[in-house]
Amino acid sequence: MVKRALRRILPGLADEPDPARRDLGPLADNEAYVPGHGDPSYAVRSYDLDLTLKLAGNHVQGRAELLIEPLVDPLPRLQLDLHGLKVTSVTVDGRPAKHSRRGDRLTVTPRQPLKGGQESLLVVHYSGNPSQVRGLDGLAGWEELDDGLIVASQPHGAPSWFPCNDRPDDKAAYRIAVTTDSGYRVVANGSLVETRRRSSRTTWVYEQPEPMATYLATVQVGRYDTLDLEPGPGPDGLVPIRLHYPAALTRQVAAGPMMRHRAMLNTFTEAFGPYPFARYDVVITPDVLEIPLEAQTLSIFGSNFARPGWQQERLIAHELAHQWFGNSLTLGQWRDIWLHEGFACWSEWLWSERSGGRRAADLAREHYRGLADKPQDLYLVDPTPQLMFDDRVYKRGGVLLQALREHVGDGAFFAFLRTWCERYRYGTITTPAFVAEAAADLGIAPDWFDPWLQHKTLPEWGS
To answer: Which annotated residues bind Zn(2+) (predicted)?
Structure first.
């Protein structure tokens, strides 16, 4: 079975008037990009998810514990995002709470309003057959493979498998426990801390202590062998890297670009600063996938990406770079997606340059010429929901970074990148913060960025 794309490039809507400049004031917020998701009245500090999965029939029985903190006082009720699954009970601080459903919104009303700034434990029991969630950019979330499953939640698919506050700026710690058939391996975010086998069922327990956005939470299940890459030289040479793949792909994986992860990790560590998590896992599915994707502490590739070639290698580098740009540093508003994808795209070019391939400057100019031949109908700083994963967002963001690098010089540029990654480690980022801090640290005027970010027309750039 050939799976659908996990992220899609969609045509734009009818052209809007083309002002010369898009202000960096209040733009489209998350409600415009992912309508009906998230509740800003509270924050989740941790998720503890316990799932029992029957692969035959695609059935889940789940228990979700959410440690929440109200951000308003008092908080009489709150909403969770949950798609399609049946809720059997809800408690708040051990006491039954009223709950009701309307579409994908679960409203919970505690017996007494919750106090602002005081943590409460919300427990939801639920079950059913998980399915993907449709958004403005397409489908996302839980998806069955021919033999196993993947979860690809960007940007709105997390409610397909657990009740959550589905906002990218609401980052939390996670514990994920999955019980399923013993012939399968479960891979989830963070570190594997326990496995328990009982008869024909095995429980896999993962812990992700660093804060994580809901869309990055994932579970991957398949009949996978594993390979631990050898430690290597460099500042992060001891970070565990494990590949998970079907036995039929053993020779292809061993001879292909997946084996370059250690060198890529060292290259990016030198450029961006320390790898932000305890380990990195790579899942290679038996199915063909149109594109790969990253989740926090791991990335997922179809079997087609195990083959040799620059197209495969650049995407392997792209997804690894997201551990810094997207996972450690996470946008607060989906309009700022270039802060993830532009950086990861430019990281492909950096890897090419550092590994003996084409220079980043040459690749950036090639893609600049390609951008010049395409419609000039999006703002990088707010591309619209329909164009948020358009290839022009990726490439224009990457070219911006290369132009900045050449404008200020390598020493200042890479020092700023390391400062940026350290300053916002595990935090939330915005375009205005990036512009202000780059301008201050690099000694350039903030309006240097305007033609790249706030104009539709591609700015002039060196030959």
So the answer is: 318, 322, 341
Q: Distance (Å, rounded) from C-alpha 370 to C-alpha 420? A: 29
pLDDT in tens, 273-325: 999 999 999 999 999 999 999 999 999 999 999 999 999 999 999 999 999 99
The distance between the two most distant Cα atoms of the chain, rounded to a whole number of Å, is: 67
Look over the chain and give the mean of its residue pLDDT values, rounded to a whole number.
92
Spatial neighbors of 154 by CB under 8 A, at least 6 apart, are: 6, 7, 140, 215, 216, 293
Q: Is 407 annotated as a binding residue?
A: no
DSSP per position, 170-218: --EEEEEEEEEETTSEEEESSEEEEEEEETTEEEEEEEEEEEE-GGG--
307 Cβ contact partners less than 8 Å away, ≥ 6 residues apart:
252, 256
Instruction: Give the homologous superfamily in CATH for domain 40-214.
Output: tricorn interacting facor f3 domain (2.60.40.1730)
322 labelled as ligand-binding? yes
Catalytically active residues, by annotation: 319, 394
Residue 125 assigned as binding residue: no
Instruction: Give the burial string for 16-46 (b: 16+ CB within 10 Å, else e).
Output: eeeeeebebeeeeebeebbeebbbebbbbeb
Please, where in the chain does CATH 2.60.40.1730 lie?
40-214
CA distance 194 to 258: 26
Number of Cβ within a 10 Å radius of residue 106: 22
Cα–Cα distances in angstroms (integers) from residue 144 to residues 45, 60, 138, 221, in the given order: 30, 13, 17, 9
Specify the domain boundaries for CATH 1.10.390.10 within the chain: 224-317, 330-453
H/E stretch holding 440: helix 431-442
For the full predicted model, state whether its pTM sits above 0.85: yes
Architecture of domain 330-453: Orthogonal Bundle (1.10)
pLDDT digits (tens, 9 = 90+) for 177-205: 999 999 999 999 999 999 999 989 999 99
Topology of domain 224-317 in CATH is Neutral Protease; domain 2 (1.10.390)
